[in-house]
Amino acid sequence: MNAIVRNVIGGRHSAPGGSERYRAINPARLDDIVADYAFSSAADVEAAVEAARRALRPWRETSAIARGEILTKAGIALRARAKDFGALMSREMGKPLAEAIGEVDYAGKVLQFYGAEAQRPAGETLQSGRPNVHYYTVREPIGVVGAITPWNFPFSIACWKLGPALVSGNTVVWKPAPHHPGCSQAVLDMLVEAGLPEGVVNLVHGGAETGGAIVADARIAGVSFTGSTPVGQAIYRQVSGRLARAQCEMGGKNALYVHAEADLDKAVMLTVEGAFRSAGQKCTATSRVLVDAAIEAAFTEKLLARVAEIRAGDPFDAATFLGPVVDERQFAKVRGHIGAAISAGQRLLAGGAEAPVDNGYFVAPTVFGAVAADAPIAREEIFGPVVALIPVGGLEAAVETVNGTDYGLSATIVTRDLEAAHRFARSVETGVVGVNLPTAGVELHAPFGGWKGSGLGVPEQGLKILDFYTKWRSVAMQFA
């Protein structure tokens, strides 16, 4: 069924008013039109920012405990409907159903986490060197926040931006990716049903122009963005240039290092989980596998045997491991990277073409072997089910290779050697490090952020992100 897509501005639902249109298609069934709708106009963004400004003072003056209770209720509601919303996600962007249900459940936990944070102290009492002076600090919201979220995690990334922004007392203008309008509406519906006042979150559907209007609006005190590195860097420059705050989570070229002392079966499992879950469409997906030369042949044989077992197909089929990539543009991009690597003479070990599925944007799990560390397939973000095997001559060479790109998001070592694990964790230039764990996978209470071209500003998630959404006030009060 073709969904009706509406903006939500000041609590009112209205059709987006722009001239550009977008057709959202089920990437696993190309004859299934999810929605055909207009993007928002500049006037829509203007109205959304104004609605957020009007709602700011009463929301800020609402007690933090009451704000937290709304988030907690919304989180519980999301988790209660995880199966329904997971099915919606599978249809709108192709994520296999079990993964989609897990994401919705995780998103609900994120809202519950930030709801509970409302009960922590929002400042501290300080000693003063002056007589009879009571000194204390308190966090205050920064104001109206712009949130721009991607298509690969429709629920969880939205919640880990909205949760800390709202519990801190900010109001939000939110532009999600256009692929999953139903998922975005579901997040807002759960917040509204939990008691969120009108205008506190304003949903505007659109593309680059809509996001650009949010970024350019001087009334927005901070912009939180998740997406590609070039766009994130441009946003950071623009927002910082007008002396507002920016927080950008961007791309990655994540490496898993199979150390000579690794459990090879575990290394294979971690490679497959990191590289091919969600069709490789994670900023933390494993895109490079660095293998000590002494075990390269044995590891490669085991990996190819496992890759041959991967089943691609209908996201609603419980046996499906690999779903489609999200849309025609991503399909062409991933195939373009594969084709360029083959043309350049890279050794194709598995995949390299469309998966044998009749109807959808399916790419076969693809493995290239004996890849040089400076080859484009080993340096450029692909965002698809493609992995490059890079032989290395030990730990130091592996660390040098991990650090030899413009990205710095996630890296993992697989080893039984504790000293090697510590040396790796201390030496790689990434914001996230794993030991005997996939490159993909984060926990909601831990800070999540990349280095170099993978992240700018305060890391997301956990408590560190509250520093982005708040500013400090120091109060000194003298008594006679």
From TrEMBL:
Entry-linked Pfam families: Aldedh
GO molecular-function terms, A-Z: aldehyde dehydrogenase (NAD+) activity
Keywords attached to this entry: Oxidoreductase
EC number, UniProt record: 1.2.1.3
Keyword Nucleotide-binding on entry: no
Aldehyde dehydrogenase domain span: 19-475
Cross-referenced Gene3D superfamilies: Aldehyde Dehydrogenase, Chain A, domain 1, Aldehyde Dehydrogenase, Chain A, domain 2
Residue ranges that the Swiss-Prot or TrEMBL entry lists as coiled coil: none
Superkingdom of the organism of origin: Bacteria
Alphabetized InterPro entries for the sequence: Ald_DH/histidinol_DH, Ald_DH_C, Ald_DH_CS_CYS, Ald_DH_N, Aldehyde_DH_dom
Protein name: Aldehyde dehydrogenase (NAD+)
